[in-house]
Design goal:
Layout (H helix, E strand, L loop, with lengths): L1 H25 L4 H9 L37 E8 L3 E4 L2 E4 L5 E8 L13 E7 L6 E3 L5 E3 L2 H19 L4 E7 L3 E8 L9 E5 L2 E5 L1
């Protein structure tokens, strides 16, 4: 009798375990599993990178996009591919819908670049300056002399002229030849750089000399 009782208890335990396994398999007896079974398969969440389709507004500086921070990419082709996880997106007033797959936009934009400018043509300037005694003194009928400012005024005018030539084009060249009883090439034809005045005067009897 005891052996029969033990066998009966054993088979009752086995039957109870089998029933529990069956209930778990059907979702009965477990709230979370029942909810998943009732709702069907779990819904996947779509994930995509950030939208970069409007990046050109910050890169291609032109009249249409005056707020762009740089003109580095002006005149080039801008390409972009953006993937959207949203079911609906709107571009240029049009709506695009896809509730099961990803939405993809491809952009290829070209920009024009106009460069308008001018480069001043360099000049060659040759000046011949009188440095005879009449540029330093006036003479009366008795050969008496009175100092004048002709050389000073001439040098002042030449300094202004040379400065304008230098500012016009850094490649401009100037030359100065001074004459009296002898001809002297004060400045050979070339490009010069200086600060202040290029020329000054010094009194050398019987005329003014030009220093530089």
């Amino acid at each position: 009798m005891k052996s029969h009782k033990y066998r009966s208890d054993f088979w009752r335990i086995v039957a109870s375990a089998a029933l529990c396994i069956a209930l778990l398999g059907t979702g009965i007896g477990n709230g979370s599993i029942t909810a998943m079974a009732a709702e069907g398969e779990p819904t996947a969440t779509k994930v995509a990178d950030i939208d970069a389709s409007d990046g050109y507004t910050n890169l291609m500086a032109n009249e249409e996009y005056p707020n762009a921070t740089t003109s580095r990419y002006a005149g080039r082709i801008w390409a972009d591919k953006s993937v959207f996880a949203d079911e609906t997106i709107e571009r240029d007033g049009k709506k695009f819908t896809n509730d099961s797959d990803f939405l993809v936009s491809a952009s290829f934009l070209g920009s024009t670049r106009s460069v308008i400018g001018s480069e001043p043509l360099p000049v060659d300037l040759m000046v011949i300056l009188d440095r005879s005694s009449s540029m330093a003194n006036d003479y009366d009928a008795n050969d008496n002399t009175t100092p004048n400012n002709r050389m000073k005024n001439a040098v002042t005018a030449l300094n202004g002229l040379f400065q304008q030539v230098k500012e016009h084009s850094k490649d401009s060249r100037i030359a100065l030849v001074a004459y009296s009883r002898q001809v002297v090439t004060a400045l050979p034809l070339g490009t010069y750089t200086w600060e202040g005045d290029l020329l000054s005067t010094s009194l050398v009897e019987p005329s003014n000399d030009v220093a530089y």
